[in-house]
Structure formats: C-alpha cells, structure tokens
What we know:
By secondary structure, the protein is an alpha+beta fold.
Amino acid sequence: MIGFLRGRLHAKQPPHLVVDVGGVGYELEAPMSTFYGLPSAGEPVALFTHLVVREDAQALYGFASDGERRLFRALIKISGVGPKIALGVLSGASVEEFLRTVESGDTAALIRIPGVGRKTAERIIVELRDGARKLGAAAGGEPLPPAAGEASSPYAEAFAALLALGYKPPEATRLVKAAAAPGLSTTEWIRRALKAAAQV
C-alpha cells in the first residue's frame, strides 16, 4: 500500500494529477477540496494516498489531509458507493460539513451529490451515522507531510527524523506540531517531539 507521496507536481487537470517522485510519475485522482490547495506545476507537493486495485485496473487517489482519506475509505465500503461518488462527496463539502449532514439525517443534501440517489443517501446515513463522531475526531485536519522543497526547515527535518524512527506520517505530524515553539533547532524539536510521544 502507498501511504503518501512527496515530490513535485508535474501536471494537474481535475480530477487528475501527476506527481513526480524521484523521476517516476504517479497518476492520481483527487477531490476538488484537494485541488484547491495544490501548488503550481513544478512546485513541491505532498499527498496522502489510497490505492484501489480492481481486476482490470489500479487507481491511486490523493488527499490533502488524512481526514479526507479516512472519509473516502469509509464511503467506499458502503454498498453502491464507489470511488467516483466518494470523490464527489469530498468535492462538494468539507469532511466536517459532510459529517454534520450525516448526523442530521439530511438525505436531501446527499441526493444533490452526482450519482447519489435516495436509497444510496439513506444507506450512507445509516452506515456512517454511528461512526460520524469518530470520523470527525480523526479528521482534525492532519496537514500535509512537508514537501520535498522544504527539506531545509527544522519542521521538515524533525518530521523526516520521526518517519525514520518508524512513526507513521499522521502520528509524526501530530508530534512535531505538539513540540512546536519559536526558534527551535532541529535537534531540540526532535527531542521535544519524542518527549511528547513518551507522555502519550
């Protein structure tokens, strides 16, 4: 499984984009919520990803935050909801807005999403309502991992060090953010992040 990509944005044309990672171009599809935050072609970019493998094809999907990816994964587990509809959901509302719609049982709002009929809308509400709060908490908007062009910053170096130590990207991001303080050196930032990890 490919967890995230970090490289340079080679091309973008919604919903498709290509990320150059060490000379290899990864083709992805992404929701508009992710496209809004993409840099210009040639600039550093980092995206959380989800790989869908079918008998006839493999498709890679990219997301600006881990929260978006979690919601995408929850949606495609629902009968009648495929990746295309899930991208439509994420393109039309933020994770928090969508989960509020689910909690309120607003089928009319869901039916306005392309490809979602009444039965599918009702199924989404039934299957996601119980887990909406958990998804909402997890969607606290994990930011992107630092992109390749930011490698010289203490933040990026601390993040990379935590990855090398075996922390997963969302956890590394949380720890680095928790350790943030003005004027920290890379070494001190890593020390504070590891201290925060030990206190969990």
